[in-house]
Each structure stands twice: as C-alpha cells, then as structure tokens.
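User: Can you recover a sequence for this backbone? Please restate the input before giving your answer.

Assistant: Of course. Working from this structure:
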C-alpha cells in the first residue's frame, strides 16, 4: 500500500511491515477477542466492578461474577489484585450466593468496600487497623420471582482474601425489590460513614449515615434528573478539586435497561454537606460520562493513594451483553482504569477522564511520527504498524479538510472508523463495518456521534485498541467513547484519511500494549 505522504518518522523497535499480513497466531489465536490489557475474568461471566479499594499496597478489584458459566447468573464477587492497575493477579472468589432457611436464594449484587481503620464496626480483633468491610446488595429470589433487595455487610481480616458475612444482615432493608448497589465512604468532616444507594425504579439516590457501619440512618434523597427513563444503578459520590480553587462533589449514576438510544452512564456535579446532595444546575438533560455504547456501572476506588480518583467501568451494555460472541469460555471486560479530574472548559466544568499513566509506562513505544500531511483522497496514509493491542495518540489539525478519519482494526473488508466532521465539530465512532455485528440487532447499527469542538483548530486523540475493545479519549480526556467490536479478519491495520482538503497530523505515537498486563 502506498502512503499518501511520508513525513519524517522514526521507527522505534520492531514494527511489522505493512506489506505482510500477520496470521492470527500465538496465544490469542484461539481466543481472538480476549483483550490483552483490559481485565477479564480467567473464565466465565463478569459484569460490574465492586468493592474497589486500595489496601495492603494493592488495588483490590471485586466484580460481579458467575462461577459456573459465561452467562449472567449465580452472581458472586470475583476478586483480583494489582500493584499498578495494569497487571492483575486472580484471587479466589470472595463472596458466593447462598440458600436461605426458607429455600430462597440470595445472590451477591453490586456494592463497595471500606477499610475500617479505627474498628468502628467492632468486627475486628483489638489493634487491627486494616480490616475490610464490604457492602453488597442481597438479591433474594425464588426461581423467577424477586423477593427483596437489601444491603448487607461482610468483613475480611486478611485484605479481602476471605470474608465472613455479618450475622446481623441485612443492615438496611426498606422492604423494596429495587434497592441496591451501596457505595460507602468515610466523610471526614463529620467523622462518619455515608452510604449512597439507589431506589432504581424511582430514579432516586438515597443517602444514609452511620457511626459503626452496622446501623444506618436515612439522611436525604435526590434524583429524577438527567436520564429518568430507565432504572438508576451503581451510584458513586466523591469530591474533586476544581482548578483554581474549591471543590465539587460528583455523583455518578448508571441508567440501566437499554433502549437503542441508550447511553450508559451519567454524572451530576454539585455540593454535598454531609447530609444532602445539591446539584449545580437543574440537569433537565443528562450529562453523559462516555458517549459509546459500552461503558456502564463505572465506580471508583476508595483510599487510592495520593488522593487519586480512579474509575473502573464494565465495557458492555445490558442490551446485548448476554450475546456478545466471546463465549463460551468468558464474557465481559473492564475499561482501563481512568483517572478522574475536573476541567474548566468554555462549556463549563467537565469530568475529565484519562487512562491511568501506569498503562503506558508498561507499554513499548513502537512508532513516533512528529508531523505529516494527510493529502485528501482515498489512498490515505497507512500507519506503518500493525496490531490489535496498542494505544495510538495523535493531534489533528483539519485545516480545510471536511472530514478526517482514523481506521483501526482494519482488514480487507472490515474496519472500526473514528471520523471527525469539521463543519459539525462532531466525532463519530462507527462500528457498522467492524466485523461480527449480527449477534444482536441492537449491536448492529451502532454509530456514536458526539460534539467535540476543536481547540485552537486542533483535535487531540488517544485511542486504546485491544482486540474487542476500543476506547477513545478526545481533547485530553474531555470526551470519551467506548465500544466493543468483534473483527473477523485480523490484519490489524491502521489508516488515516482526509477528505475535502489536506489535514495535518502531529505527534503520532504508537505504544504496543500487547505485553503490558503480563504478570
Ligand atoms: C448493574 C447491575 C446492578 C446490580 C448488578 C447485578 O449492571 O444491574 O444494579 O447490582 O448489575 O449483577
């Protein structure tokens, strides 16, 4: 393939020549969709991240897990640990479903974990300062009938390896079948614990307080804003500094039960005074966290070192999650952990998201092209790199071009296209030609479009590509789009195209991440 234009570029390390099409060999060949650096369970089904906490020098990741198959069911908490949010060591299943005396079954739905440093719960031996307490929703059912959803706790004396369920469970039961996903955190100004839960079917967040993690008192509720069409799930509430001074509280909500127009997760900015959340604005319209179809149930770590606020989301969508063609061995992955901050923009304060820097540190720089001109026309520019597990970064100056397109996971008849429309200032992620899209009608037609204004005439992009996951971070993390894709061909090409006029590309950088997560 001829390059439309070859500017000065440096090749660092071994790069496949674009003339060769690497055959899908090696460990991924039999399992072509299993990501190389996005977390997956060793086998079986996975959905939401749970109990995220930094403890004992490790990031502890628990997650909704079916120990028996790659379909949702028998929900338990799987467990993995990592020193750096990139390399994860699988741990034994932490909490499993259980039978009740009346024959009903309780599944371990989503929740959170805290370190009870001062043993406020009295659940730990005298002197232990690193006991963990997990909060999960007990989802009680008989076949086909939900009986209850209530909040329960379990505690661990050994950094989350083994757990005991508290004998006094449930600790919070309001007689609802739609009451779930407790996020508990320490509220230092009032020396107390706070729990955010949702009354899912009413689109409300309920806030409770406790001194001992066992007795909970209702404080306030808020909601019915943003996306109120669907159930609210997986709340999170935390404070972030505002550049230039002050702070804001961020309320994350996942709005479940998709429709075709569905977007997974929204956020609200406001204040929290220890009792109630007060939003900055009316939020008649939702503010989405990610504009792809496949980012959901994202929640953040408690106690991350250095005050970092790190988000982990499930890269899937309940609309078709059961059908994604990765099974029968496994199904479900997590987005790369994202570092959150608030950023001032002409549109106001936004929640900024960037992949944690640890990821790139574990990658291998494979290509760096300081500058190139992209001539208009179908030939485009073929990036002299091939792969399916990497990060590509670049800055576009579209100039007089009408559209500029970056194709990834491209083969003869397939590609996942990221297109910028200059007049509309819109970024589109198009997976209609990405490969296998036929396993569910809701998956097939997905073209995601979001407005992303140029900044000083430029669009900065970072794209994480990993076999079946594509995460886009635009304008240094102001806008993100996450989509699943299932290529059937595996040439792993990358091409750039301009249409209507030439465009400039600068700082094109490829980081090979295929071995980044290896233990
Ligand atoms: C969100 C969710 C939660 C629930 C869990 C069950 O994806 O529906 O509300 O606790 O998944 O797996």
């Amino acid at each position: 393939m001829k390059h439309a234009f070859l500017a000065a570029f440096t090749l660092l390390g071994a790069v496949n020549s674009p003339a060769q099409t690497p055959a899908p060999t090696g460990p991924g060949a039999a399992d072509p969709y299993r990501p190389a650096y996005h977390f997956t369970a060793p086998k079986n089904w996975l959905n939401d991240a749970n109990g995220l906490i930094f403890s004992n020098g490790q990031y502890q990741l628990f997650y909704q897990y079916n120990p028996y198959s790659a379909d949702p069911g028998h929900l338990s908490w799987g467990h993995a640990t990592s020193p750096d949010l990139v390399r994860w060591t699988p741990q034994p299943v932490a909490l499993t479903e259980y039978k009740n005396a009346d024959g009903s079954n309780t599944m371990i739905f989503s929740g959170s974990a805290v370190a009870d440093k001062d043993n406020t719960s009295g659940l730990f031996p005298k002197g232990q300062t690193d006991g963990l307490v997990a909060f999960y929703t007990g989802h009680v059912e008989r076949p086909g009938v939900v009986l209850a959803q209530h909040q329960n706790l379990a505690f661990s004396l050994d950094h989350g390896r083994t757990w005991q369920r508290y004998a006094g469970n449930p600790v919070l039961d309001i007689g609802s079948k739609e009451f779930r996903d407790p996020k508990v955190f320490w509220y230092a100004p009032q020396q107390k614990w706070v729990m955010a839960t949702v009354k899912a079917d009413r689109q409300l967040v309920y806030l409770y307080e406790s001194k001992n993690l066992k007795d909970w008192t209702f404080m306030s509720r808020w909601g019915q804003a943003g996306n109120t069409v669907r159930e609210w799930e997986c709340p999170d509430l935390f404070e972030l500094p505002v550049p230039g001074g002050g702070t804001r509280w961020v309320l994350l909500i996942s709005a479940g039960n998709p429709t075709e127009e569905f977007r997974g997760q929204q956020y609200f900015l406001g204040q929290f005074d220890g009792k109630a959340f007060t939003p900055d604005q009316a939020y008649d319209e939702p503010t989405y966290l990610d504009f792809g179809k496949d980012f959901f149930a994202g929640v953040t770590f408690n106690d991350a070192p250095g005050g970092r606020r790190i988000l982990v989301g499930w890269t899937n969508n309940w609309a078709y999650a059961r059908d994604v063609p990765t099974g029968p061995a496994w199904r479900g992955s997590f987005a790369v952990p994202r570092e959150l901050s608030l950023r001032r923009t002409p549109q106001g304060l936004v929640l900024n998201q960037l992949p944690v820097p640890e990821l790139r540190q574990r990658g291998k720089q494979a290509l760096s092209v300081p500058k190139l001109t992209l001539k208009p026309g179908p030939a485009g520019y073929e990036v002299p790199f091939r792969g399916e597990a990497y990060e590509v970064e670049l800055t576009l100056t579209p100039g007089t071009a009408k559209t500029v397109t970056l194709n990834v996971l491209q083969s003869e008849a397939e590609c996942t296209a990221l297109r910028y429309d200059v007049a509309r200032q819109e970024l589109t992620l198009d997976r209609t030609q990405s490969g296998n899209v036929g396993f569910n009608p809701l998956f097939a037609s997905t073209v995601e479009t979001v407005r992303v204004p140029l900044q000083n005439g430029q669009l900065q992009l970072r794209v994480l590509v990993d076999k079946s996951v594509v995460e886009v971070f635009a304008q240094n993390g102001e806008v993100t789009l996450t989509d699943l894709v299932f290529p059937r061909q595996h040439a792993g090409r990358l091409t750039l195209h301009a249409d209507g006029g030439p465009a400039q590309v600068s700082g094109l950088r490829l980081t090979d991440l295929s071995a980044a997560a290896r233990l």
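That completes the design. Residues 47-48, 64, 75, 109-110, 137, 180-181, 233-234, 256, 297 surround beta-D-fructofuranose (CB under 6 Å).
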